[in-house]
Design brief:
The chain is α/β, with parallel strands linked by helices. The longest helix has 25 residues. Strands 2-3-1-4-5 form a five-stranded parallel β-sheet, sandwiched between helices. The protein has a five-stranded parallel β-sheet with strand order 7-8-6-9-10, with helices on both faces. It folds into two domains: 230 residues, Rossmann fold (3-Layer(aba) Sandwich); 220 residues, Rossmann fold. Helices cover 50% and strands 13% of the residues. It holds the Pfam family PPK2. InterPro entries: P-loop_NTPase, PolyP_AMP_Tfrase, PPK2-related.
């Protein structure tokens, strides 16, 4: 894997000058073509042996290309806010849009490399970490992110000579870090760790490229050539993601998504009594000290006019306005369309001690986008696993995730539509899309059954509330939240 790099190949100055002129011109031209076509984002992941010249290579890229259209992203230890969210949150937030180029230092590979470099690495943990990384990269590849993973390597002797030369010159001594100095003592272990990391995460859609780094000229040319290739070559076919073994909550393939006829109604006095009880319980839970290490994510989906807005208002009335956010989801903006699908949802994940309520959600991909044929079938079919993975990361980040499907009968929906149409206070809620969706009732119900069957997991269960009585539905929502919080 590292044999060529450890032979420390070099490039003579004449050959370098010839290649440099061509590469600089082609890189700049391709960069502007990328901005024009916007058919992909390019994400360059920089990793390798400390002291191999990673920073110098990337500085040169910024010199050869237009730096205004390159985002260099350097990640160190997580901040206080970052530590309260799933580990991948900060990387999702930094993803470049279509047409842009991003360069990542200290990427999601840093924890994996750290584990692999231990005296006795935990291979099971390494396998789990690598599988999560491959699922993440597979989704990015499917969403038109062209990833280039560069591993910079050189021999032990060349690394020592390079560091000693930098230390001898006051103009460059500041570049030498403590990690650079440790490499000479732990070279063999770090080399083995690199082999473990590359072997576990090299995939056809995101292969690793080892860059020999002893010679600055060769390092620069091979880096530039690899970037140019990533910008030019056709995007790979949508990869098959490593599966996530999500624990199912139960067999929900035949879940009853419509209320049974003849259901009872909650009278106003009983409704107000139960509502106050569950709201008080929820208020206590969110203010409790133990909630400061958790967060609450609530997802509301369902048929039009099923009462999502009313249920959300009753939940929010139990909370301090400073402790929650409500995120209404509609058609994605141009900026959201220029990023991978889940990007806009990752951005809203709450800190510990906070509640985030999604009015519609990431499930639009397997509901409206599926039913309205806005995306190819292969895209919504792979979304089930992508969503399960996303929600599993929320759980591991400390979130309690609850998903509500609210439904009414067709007759009750029609009655509510007419009520909205005839009311000056509610007619703004009724749109032509509502009537059009009603005509596709069976299609939406079929998609909803598939959704619940495929994404009802132990860590993020679906709670189906099918009731024609608004009061009963609202009380049930609050009751389920309070009981789930108690259990968590």
């Amino acid at each position: 894997m590292f044999e060529r790099a450890e032979r420390d190949p070099s490039m003579d100055e004449r050959e370098y000058e010839r290649r440099e002129l061509v590469l600089r011109t082609e890189l700049l031209q391709q960069q502007y073509e990328l901005l024009k076509q916007r058919d992909r984002a390019v994400l360059i992941v920089v990793a390798g042996i400390d002291g191999a010249g990673k920073g110098s290579a990337i500085n040169l890229l910024n010199e050869w290309m237009d730096p205004r259209h390159i985002r260099t992203l350097a990640f160190g230890d997580p901040s206080v806010d970052e530590a309260q969210r799933p580990a991948m949150w900060r990387y999702w937030n930094a993803l470049p849009a279509l047409g842009q180029t991003g360069i990542v230092f200290g990427s999601w590979y840093a924890p994996l490399f750290k584990e692999a470099a231990r005296k006795k690495p935990d291979m099971d943990r390494i396998g789990a970490m690598a599988a999560e990384i491959l699922r993440f990269e597979a989704m990015l590849a499917s969403e038109r992110v062209r990833m280039l993973k560069l591993w910079y390597h050189l021999s032990r002797g060349a690394q020592i000579a390079r560091i000693d030369a930098q230390l001898a010159d006051p103009a460059t001594a500041w570049r030498v870090s403590e990690a650079d100095l440790k490499v000479r003592k732990k070279f063999d272990r770090l080399r083995t760790a690199g082999e473990i990391v590359l072997g576990a995460t090299d995939a056809a859609y995101t292969p690793w490229r080892v860059v020999p780094s002893a010679d600055a000229r060769l390092r620069a040319v091979e880096t530039a050539a690899a970037v140019l290739q990533a910008m030019r070559e056709p995007l790979p076919r949508a990869p098959r993601r490593p599966p996530l073994q999500a624990a199912r909550h139960g067999d929900r393939s035949r879940a009853m998504l419509e209320p049974a006829p003849g259901g009872s109604k909650l009278d106003e006095v009983d409704y107000e009594r139960q509502l106050a009880r569950w709201q008080a319980r929820l208020s206590e839970q969110v203010r409790a000290k133990r909630f400061r290490k958790r967060s609450l994510v609530l997802v509301f989906e369902g048929v039009d006019a099923a009462g999502k807005g009313g249920a959300i208002r009753r939940v929010s009335h139990a909370l301090d306005v400073r402790d929650f956010d409500i995120v209404p989801i509609s058609a994605p903006s141009d900026d959201e369309l220029a990023h991978p699908y889940l990007w806009r949802f990752w951005r809203h994940l709450p800190l510990h001690g906070r509640v985030c309520i999604f009015d519609r959600s990431w499930y639009g991909r397997v509901l409206v986008e599926r039913v309205e044929s806005l995306i190819p079938p292969a895209t919504w079919r792979r979304a089930y696993d992508e969503i399960n993975d996303f929600e599993d990361q929320l759980r591991r980040g400390g979130a309690v995730v609850l998903k509500f499907w609210l439904s009414v009968s067709r007759q009750e929906q029609l009655r509510r539509f007419k009520e909205r149409r005839d009311s000056p206070f509610k007619n703004f809620k009724l749109t032509p899309d509502d009537w059009r969706n009603r005509r596709k009732w069976d299609d939406y119900m079929s998609a909803a059954r598939d959704m619940i069957a495929r994404t009802d997991t132990a860590h993020a269960p679906w709670i189906v509330i099918a009731d024609d009585d608004k009061r009963t539905a609202r009380v049930k929502v609050l009751e389920h939240i309070v009981k789930a919080m108690d259990e968590a």
